[in-house]
Amino acid sequence: MRMQAQDVHSAARSTRPRTRHVSIYCKISNNNNVSRSLESPQPQPAKPARKLASIVLAAAVALSPLVPATDVAASEAVATSSAALELQQAYDKYSASYDELDGGAAADALGFPQLRAQLLAQARGRTLEVAVGTGLNLQYYDWAQPAPAAATEATGGGGEEEAAATAAASSGVTSLDTVDLSPGMLAQARARVRGSPGLAGRPIAFQQADVAALPYADSAFDTVVDTFSLCVFPDPQAAMHELARVVRPASGGGGGGGGRLLLLEHSRSDNPLLAAYQDATAGPVAALGKGCVWNQDVEAMAARAGLVVTRAERFAAGTVELLVAEKPAPPQQ
């Protein structure tokens, strides 16, 4: 992966104008080492400053694997478009080696495992994870303790609304539905559960599905999760609308706190110079990273889907964003 990251960086530099160099670290690095070129009198970041660019690019590519490794027999296609079918087939081929590519040194250096844990600790109630892949996130969920029998009897059942409110107000996940377009990736996720004592026996369901057409009713989940997948979806905005559709509204039901959407995604940096760098390198990164578009405005996508962002934190020089969003409650009749 180190050589692949260098290739990405080399391709990225070739796209920049030769007469002007853009410094992407003047606001985010305390390193005062600069250089100048004959073509541009403006100070440029020296090699130490460019190192972080390579790391960030490597992380973007690492989370979108590059080279197919093994063939996996595909099940009945559920893709809703030719682009989605192509994506399914590609992920089937490298599903067996995905973890080696996704869990590389670049991702570890940027603290992505810790960000996954931070995000998923907020999941509660009935939870859906889309693009579950090989199940890298499964170890980070906090599971709710079973309700005492006396408490269950006291509620007398209470109907679906009360049950949903109780689940949403719980301190952890009560059930986990997962979907992925690739049957090969789902096979790896199932194997992970079977081989993990902490996961075996948990209420985890796996289903092959296209995120553009989720097989669930409206407002079906208390928590919906997606990590590092929007950048490769053929139609990320359509996917965001589907995520919004299946999550419960805020403060809905019996006052259990409502649903929430948890996202950890590549996003266009809030640093203007770094954002310009992302824009300039978006083509090479997508070409080498299985179509990963690493300069999307994820907050804007959430807003277009009718969601309200309640928490937003940026990492990796602003190129990775952790978002918590809610669907507004419907107006009272």
UniProtKB/TrEMBL annotation:
Spell out the molecular function terms from Gene Ontology: methyltransferase activity; S-adenosylmethionine-dependent methyltransferase activity
Q: At the top level of its lineage, which domain of life is listed?
A: Eukaryota
UniProt region (Disordered), positions on chain: 150-169
Per UniProt, residues of the Methyltransferase type domain are 165-249
The record's section on InterPro entries has: Methyltransf_11 (IPR013216), Methyltransf_Superfamily (IPR050508), SAM-dependent_MTases_sf (IPR029063)
Recorded hits in Pfam families, A to Z, give:
Methyltransf_11 (PF08241)
Provide the protein name: Methyltransferase type 11 domain-containing protein
The organism encoding this protein is: Chlamydomonas reinhardtii
